[in-house]
Amino acid sequence: MAGTRKQNRTGRRILAAGAGLATVGALVAAMPAGAAQDTAAGQGGTNGKGWGRMVDVQLLSFNDLHGNLEPPAGSSGQVSRVKPDGTTEKIDAGGVEYLATHLRQARQGNRYSITAAAGDMVGASPLLSGLFHDEPTIGALNGMDLDVTSVGNHEFDEGAAELSRLQNGGCHPTAGCFDGGKKFGGADFPYLAANVTSEKTGKPLLDPTFVWEKDGVKIGFIGVTLEGTPNVVTAEGVKGLKFGDEVETINKYAKILERQGVKSIVALVHEGGLPASANYDYDCDSPVAGGGVSGPITEIAKNVDPQVDALVTGHTHNAYVCTIPDPAGKPRLVTSAASFGRLYTDTTLTYDRATKDIVRTAVDSANHAVTRDVPKAPDMSRLIGQWQDLAAPIANRPQGWIAADINGRGSTAYEKPLGDVIADAQLAGLAPAGKGGAQVAFMNPGGIRADLVHKASGAEGDGVVTYGEAFAVQPFTNMMNVVDLSGADLVEALKQQVSGSNLNAVKILQVSRGLTYTLDMTKSGADRVVTGSIKLNGEAIDPSKSYRVAMNEFLAGGGDGFAALAKGTNKLVGASDLDLFNEYLAANSSATAPLAVPAADRITVVR
């Protein structure tokens, strides 16, 4: 009987690792140095298979790919590191043609190698993947031999049924079959969703755990997404689902795995931290273990049961390799590999066959850049080319012109130049009386997924914005809402940027022209928004007055902790955010008069 695709793939990997090894000497030569020494020393041991007690298991990991099959453009396609002379160097990185090559090169010589991910493999994807409901990305991950991933919040962008389709296969219910009419086969790897359960049955939506096994070596994986997923996904996307506490869930399944005889455990956690440095090679354990990272993952790591040997994390799109003490005070590895396939983490887990556990003191890990100076993986090039041919008629269509780079995702400022453009586009499209009568527009910063880059990405010419490039900026195609909000609610929404759930990780709304205010970061909490400074077209906001406010459906549902925005009444549903963005580019730019970079001076920041 033929095995499953996953079983066949694993079998091929084992055969490839052992092919042509006719003698023990050849076997030893093919293994990592530490494992080879132990194998030689353990020859004739009680296991009877010629394996030593200690085995080095390679764990390759990455996170937050977001369907970036092609190399990301602009700052979204760069990482930084410190050169020997102390200066910082930016490196162009990313693209699955290069990621596949790096992973395959890293696996060479490692008999025991696992590849895992920490969620957001799909969702908020560029056109090449997003146009086809991320089937191209699942195909690429299959080709890169991904073994397992947790779900992330973006896996729920299109709801539980669509996530199930990505896992199990089948053609899209409305768009149908894309690749020459062939039925989509689904993921060769399991998506883990231990803390995502059905509200009706209480059962996990997908498998909670996965056990990787080879030659008697067993590594268990538990996959969770952030408990706050409903706050960062549309209500429709998480309908009927419950998201549990990350720590409680991981601890629960760690005990279950241990009862099953699996004592080496890795948690794949789609929640992350805020590193002290943007350089991927900085010392995260300075001045003390875990001292170089803060944010939600630190409390999770400090409370996850010591049975768990390492945490692979994501969500914040940052890079770090830290050792954060577990509840018993023992150092434990916590990693993240930035985003968009620009980095991967290479970790050596030393497995003790006698105890069946990881020797924590022997764990070694580092992040590596997915540089573009290696050969492209031919199978990934073919995959990209096939989907490019299908997408080309739409992707290459010009939408507008820009005079220089307009940064969004790549901007570190609270007010992003591209955020101003997007908010202005939404206001312009929804201001007419028949389209909503909007007076002001808000855009959530996390919804800006890329920069507009002046340099041509193809044959369109410098400064031309194609449909594909606009889609990369606004990939959700959220429907726009225009609602009535009182001045008091509008002020409260601005204060929620820096208070409540956003107190420690502020989320500054991008605002349309005419709205101005001061953000005083020397103060704390809601007081950071200076109430008396908030003005619309030069007039102070009247708490008792009603205003027409435009925003996407995510914000209108209270997403990102903006409960005040969910109080809107008299709702009118308009065009999608992407349609308004493209209309604005077409109406406000030309080859001879390209769109200039906004001054980004609507929010005055005091530090």
Full CATH superfamily name of the largest domain: Metallo-dependent phosphatases
Q: Mean pLDDT, as a whole number?
A: 91
Q: Do you know the CATH topology of the largest domain?
A: Purple Acid Phosphatase, chain A, domain 2
**Oligomeric category:** single chain
Q: How much helicity do the residues have? A: 25-40%
CATH class of the largest domain: Alpha Beta
Overall shape: it is globular
The assigned CATH architecture of the largest domain is 4-Layer Sandwich
Uncertain runs: 1-50
Quickly count the domains: 2
Keywords: Hydrolase, Nucleotide-binding, Signal
GO biological process, one term: nucleotide catabolic process
GO cellular component, one term: outer membrane-bounded periplasmic space
Organism: Streptomyces laurentii
Summarize the structure in words.
With 607 residues, the protein is α/β, with parallel strands linked by helices. It has 2 domains: 305 residues, Purple Acid Phosphatase, chain A, domain 2, CATH 3.60.21.10; 208 residues, Alpha-Beta Complex (5'-nucleotidase,  domain 2). Helix content is 25%, strand content 24%. It contains 16 helices and 30 strands. Strand 15 and strand 16 form a beta hairpin. The relative contact order is 0.11. The N terminus is likely disordered.
In short:
This protein has 16 helices and 30 strands.
Question: Descriptors for this entry?
Answer:
5'-nucleotidase,  domain 2; single chain; 30 strands; alpha/beta; 607 residues; 2 domains; Purple Acid Phosphatase, chain A, domain 2; six-stranded mixed sheet
